[in-house]
Amino acid sequence: MRVEVVTPKDFVGSVTGDLNRRRGRIEKMEPRPGGAEVVTAYVPLSEMFGYTTDLRSMTQGRATSTMHFERYDQAPKNIADEVIAKVQGVAK
Predict the structure, then answer these.
(1) CB of 38 closer than 8 Å to CB of 5
(2) Total tally of structural domains belonging to the chain
(3) Is the dihedral of CA 73, 42, 66, 61 positive or negative?
(4) Residue ranges of the alpha helices (H) in the chain?
(5) What's the pLDDT tens digit per position in 42-59?
(6) From CA 39, how far away is CA 5, in angstroms rounded?
(7) Helix axis angle, 12-21 relative to 51-58, nearest 10°?
(8) pTM
(9) What does the longest C-alpha to C-alpha distance in the chain come to?
(10) How far is CA 10 from the centre of its chain?
């Protein structure tokens, strides 16, 4: 998913740290007039559940985000192995 977060500069570190913890890749950061920053990142959809609530908490409700599908990517081996194990466990 392509995620764009508009946040006050005071919270950029928290926002980028949280996106990284969600296996996100920060693509770019752009300043906006008025002391805001736009952070653009690509994050797996499976990691984005509950993000809006977490974003509001970490920015005192002052950041906004948009998200839309960008592309499919190959899952890392450890994640793929987890999914396969779950499917095989259900199928048995």
Answers:
(1) yes
(2) 1
(3) positive
(4) 12-21, 51-58, 77-91
(5) 999 999 999 999 999 999
(6) 5
(7) 150
(8) 0.84
(9) 58
(10) 19
